[in-house]
């Protein structure tokens, strides 16, 4: 009887631990995915802004262009 109760408590403990692990894995996957997406958007934004500055720079008269 005691062995059965001990076994059931161990099983419940490991079930809870597994659920916690699954929740943490899902959280970290979403966190990493969002971080990578934000990094990609920042990269695209900086490339676009550099491209715009190049366009503006090329439209200026020769003496006013950046070196």
Question: Can you describe this structure?
Answer:
Keywords: Membrane, Transmembrane, Transmembrane helix. The chain has 67 residues and is an all-alpha fold. It has one domain. 87% of the residues lie in helices and 0% in strands. The protein contains 1 helix and no strands. The longest helix is centred in the middle third of the chain and has 58 residues. The model has no long low-confidence stretch (mean pLDDT 81).
The backbone outline, from C-alpha atoms, is rod-shaped
The counted number of beta strands is 0
Based on helices, strands and strand pairing, what is the structural class?
mainly alpha
Low-confidence stretches: none
Q: Roughly what is the average pLDDT, rounded to an integer?
A: 81
Helical amount: over 70%
Total domain count: 1
Largest sheet: none
CA radius of gyration is 28 Å
DSSP strand content: under 5%
Number of helices: 1
Keywords: Membrane, Transmembrane, Transmembrane helix
Transmembrane segments: 13-32
